Amino acid sequence: MIGSRPIVMCGPSGSGKSTLLTRLMTDHPEKFGFCISHTTRKPRVGEENGVHYHFIEKSAMVDAIKNGEFIENATFGGNLYGTSKAAIETVFKNGKVCILDIEMQGVKQVKQSDLKPHYIFINPPSIEVLKERLLARNTETEESLKLRLSHAEEEIEYGIVPGNFDIIIVNDDLDSAYARLNAFINEKVLEGSSRY
Ligand SMILES: Nc1ncnc2c1ncn2[C@@H]1O[C@H](COP(=O)(O)OP(=O)(O)OP(=O)(O)O)[C@@H](O)[C@H]1O
Prior knowledge:
By secondary structure, this protein is an alpha/beta fold. The chain has helices at about 15-25, 60-65, 85-95, 105-110, 125-135, 140-160, 175-190, and strands at about 5-10, 30-35, 40, 55, 70-75, 80-85, 95-100, 120-125, 165-170.
């Protein structure tokens, strides 16, 4: 695959990945393309197939994974999520830098592949702030909140290990975090040795 190296964004649920990515893509719609994941979970209100996710039946996704069609996959809250090779290829074909928003299990699998992306970890200022933001987002039940927070500790532990990510961005103040993200991308992704 010829093109700029993709970007992998990882961080606990609620750390601000979507917020930062939406801003990045709005500011530079011509440069970046979001890799659309597959999931076996049901669409939420307002979610469109092929836009937010490719929604797929569990048996079909299990078969596709067995067929080697996925670069990474993970189970979260009883549902399968994954990145297909075709979804990455679609972004490459449009001449854009491919962005993957994936979680820790996925990152570990991508590291075994030949994708060679830039790895960015979005860290919340603290678990307490993470909890406050998830509560304010108003998307979680008591149970899913607990699950996300327990995963968060594990993800942060992995995220801060030197060498696991190319950059760790603490999302304290949103404007500063975005400025750090932009600086990294401008220096390493858009101007750096991004061809392979
Ligand atoms: N720096 C910040 N300061 C205050 N609030 C923030 C900041 N960054 C994000 N938020 C808010 O925190 C909440 C979580 O952010 P967001 O949905 O972007 O997280 P996420 O990492 O994409 O989560 P998920 O993995 O569950 O999709 C949102 O309501 C968002 O508006």
